[in-house]
Amino acid sequence: MHVSIVGSGYVGTTVAACLADLGHEVVNVEIDEEIVETINAGEAPIHESGLEERIAEHAGANLRATTDYDAVRETDVTFLCLPTPQADDGSLDLAIMQAGAESLGRALAAKDSDHLVVVKSTVLPGTTEDVVGRVLEDHAGTRVGDGLELAMNPEFLRMGTAVEDFLEPDKVVVGATNEEARATLRELYAPILEREDTDLVETDIREAELIKYANNAFLASKVSLVNELGNIAKAYGADAYEVLEAVGLDDRISAQFMRSGLGWGGSCFPKDVAALRAGAREQEYEPELLDAVVAVNDAQPRRLVDLLEKHVSGEGDESLEGSRIAVLGLSFKPGTDDVRKSRALDVIDTLHERDATVVAYDPVAVENVRSEYPTVEFAGSASDALEGADGAVVATDWPEFDELSFEGMAQRIVVDGRRIDVDESTLDAYEGLTW
Ligand SMILES: NC(=O)C1=CN([C@@H]2O[C@H](COP(=O)(O)OP(=O)(O)OC[C@H]3O[C@@H](n4cnc5c(N)ncnc54)[C@H](O)[C@@H]3O)[C@@H](O)[C@H]2O)C=CC1
Ligand SMILES: O=C(O)[C@H]1O[C@H](OP(=O)(O)OP(=O)(O)OC[C@H]2O[C@@H](n3ccc(=O)[nH]c3=O)[C@H](O)[C@@H]2O)[C@H](O)[C@@H](O)[C@@H]1O
């Protein structure tokens, strides 16, 4: 099948390389020339396991990138993989989607055969038909249903395991009102849908849009619940990890997303939960549970710094002023250099508010933080960061931190926000955030 992908970021590049791998003819339409050149040179514009080799294999053969929207006319299907960021008031900002749909519509105006447009970006119910569809109609000069078809196909991949998640998903969700559109997507995804472990869910467009938000809201809520239970366990002097491991043996609950600690960050959970809350309020529903999910998450970095302060300065004399604190980990989770809405940055902000000096280390993410944090010292290794520190915080559970001996610290005080594997016997104080 001939497929165009508009937007070549984390999702668009992964989808393009994987669809090329499944044998389709794929073109990426992207406004950033550097990304276009990188893909055409057979390289990956982002760091994802398994991506580089797929692009190297298919670039110049059945995968290419261009800045020219006219390329969509050589294809039967276009996927919109554009950003859907959070506006200042938390609502969904659709400006980029609208601009992309406008360019796509103009290009399709000169096409004389049928075309299917699939929204893959995360958008609230109604957006695909009422916003993207209308913009397309206005600029393509064709009505939806009259040679121009619409579908919504949300993406559930995680950063760090994007290629594997795309090729081996638990489910493929297709929202469409037209049977031909559904048949086209069944054909496109045929090798994936043949897998025993992949379910196909066919719905109307509105349900497909909401399934994505419900999925992320559920996962974020699970982590906040686990954090609340962890905070309560700690107050009782119980080990939350032992408690939650036992709870996770119940099939109805499952053992996944049971790690309590600093909470959730990243480019998706925060913006998607915010958009769903704002959207619900627009529909005149008060999302009180989701409000609490965010409140629990927001409180964890401050709770961690409170614990640290207690150990570093001694109870009754709480202050971090003038102390040197090592922050281990900057990315929002291990396996990625993405620092968007990382809890580590909230920890650093709180430490700064309390006049501590921060020395930070991350195996891959330092360059994404450096310019925004001119007063932070960046170390080349975890051991260097710990040298002379009055206390340390574990903010991201990179596996290499399990090997640390915490030698060279002025005080061997470690407050762990992620439960790494620490040998407590050599430390002056070790405390977990939720256990
Ligand atoms: N990153 C992730 O793990 C996941 C993201 N999503 C959703 O997928 C959507 C895309 O997210 P990402 O790929 O992370 O975004 P991204 O920011 O990594 O990539 C978007 C790309 O679109 C390009 N672009 C912007 N305007 C354009 C235009 N008018 N025409 C052509 N290209 C344009 C940008 O230059 C950028 O390369 C969002 O709605 C997001 O919520 C869904 C599942 C997973
Ligand atoms: O919509 C998206 O973009 C994606 O958002 C998440 O993927 P991702 O943000 O890559 O990362 P996750 O592995 O889900 O972790 C999110 C955050 O939750 C935290 N987390 C996760 C699990 C856990 O048990 N505890 C916990 O604190 C992580 O540290 C991280 O900060 C979802 O897992 C994907 O299905 C979805 O497609």
From TrEMBL:
<dbReference type="InterPro" id="IPR014027">
    <property type="entry name" value="UDP-Glc/GDP-Man_DH_C"/>
</dbReference>
<keyword id="KW-0560">Oxidoreductase</keyword>
<dbReference type="InterPro" id="IPR014026">
    <property type="entry name" value="UDP-Glc/GDP-Man_DH_dimer"/>
</dbReference>
<dbReference type="InterPro" id="IPR028357">
    <property type="entry name" value="UDPglc_DH_bac"/>
</dbReference>
<feature type="binding site">
    <location>
        <position position="84"/>
    </location>
    <ligand>
        <name>NAD(+)</name>
    </ligand>
</feature>
<feature type="binding site">
    <location>
        <position position="271"/>
    </location>
    <ligand>
        <name>NAD(+)</name>
    </ligand>
</feature>
<feature type="binding site">
    <location>
        <position position="333"/>
    </location>
    <ligand>
        <name>substrate</name>
    </ligand>
</feature>
<feature type="binding site">
    <location>
        <begin position="257"/>
        <end position="261"/>
    </location>
    <ligand>
        <name>substrate</name>
    </ligand>
</feature>
<dbReference type="InterPro" id="IPR036291">
    <property type="entry name" value="NAD(P)-bd_dom_sf"/>
</dbReference>
<protein>
    <recommendedName>
        <fullName>UDP-glucose 6-dehydrogenase</fullName>
        <ecNumber>1.1.1.22</ecNumber>
    </recommendedName>
</protein>
<dbReference type="InterPro" id="IPR001732">
    <property type="entry name" value="UDP-Glc/GDP-Man_DH_N"/>
</dbReference>
<dbReference type="Pfam" id="PF03721">
    <property type="entry name" value="UDPG_MGDP_dh_N"/>
</dbReference>
<dbReference type="GO" id="GO:0006065">
    <property type="term" value="P:UDP-glucuronate biosynthetic process"/>
</dbReference>
<comment type="similarity">
    <text>Belongs to the UDP-glucose/GDP-mannose dehydrogenase family.</text>
</comment>
<dbReference type="GO" id="GO:0000271">
    <property type="term" value="P:polysaccharide biosynthetic process"/>
</dbReference>
<dbReference type="GO" id="GO:0051287">
    <property type="term" value="F:NAD binding"/>
</dbReference>
<keyword id="KW-0520">NAD</keyword>
<feature type="active site" description="Nucleophile">
    <location>
        <position position="268"/>
    </location>
</feature>
<dbReference type="InterPro" id="IPR008927">
    <property type="entry name" value="6-PGluconate_DH-like_C_sf"/>
</dbReference>
<dbReference type="Pfam" id="PF00984">
    <property type="entry name" value="UDPG_MGDP_dh"/>
</dbReference>
<feature type="binding site">
    <location>
        <position position="265"/>
    </location>
    <ligand>
        <name>substrate</name>
    </ligand>
</feature>
<comment type="pathway">
    <text>Nucleotide-sugar biosynthesis; UDP-alpha-D-glucuronate biosynthesis; UDP-alpha-D-glucuronate from UDP-alpha-D-glucose: step 1/1.</text>
</comment>
<feature type="binding site">
    <location>
        <position position="340"/>
    </location>
    <ligand>
        <name>NAD(+)</name>
    </ligand>
</feature>
<feature type="domain" description="UDP-glucose/GDP-mannose dehydrogenase C-terminal">
    <location>
        <begin position="326"/>
        <end position="422"/>
    </location>
</feature>
<dbReference type="InterPro" id="IPR054886">
    <property type="entry name" value="UDPGDh_AglM"/>
</dbReference>
<dbReference type="InterPro" id="IPR036220">
    <property type="entry name" value="UDP-Glc/GDP-Man_DH_C_sf"/>
</dbReference>
<feature type="binding site">
    <location>
        <position position="212"/>
    </location>
    <ligand>
        <name>substrate</name>
    </ligand>
</feature>
<dbReference type="GO" id="GO:0003979">
    <property type="term" value="F:UDP-glucose 6-dehydrogenase activity"/>
</dbReference>
<dbReference type="Pfam" id="PF03720">
    <property type="entry name" value="UDPG_MGDP_dh_C"/>
</dbReference>
<dbReference type="InterPro" id="IPR017476">
    <property type="entry name" value="UDP-Glc/GDP-Man"/>
</dbReference>
<feature type="binding site">
    <location>
        <position position="122"/>
    </location>
    <ligand>
        <name>NAD(+)</name>
    </ligand>
</feature>
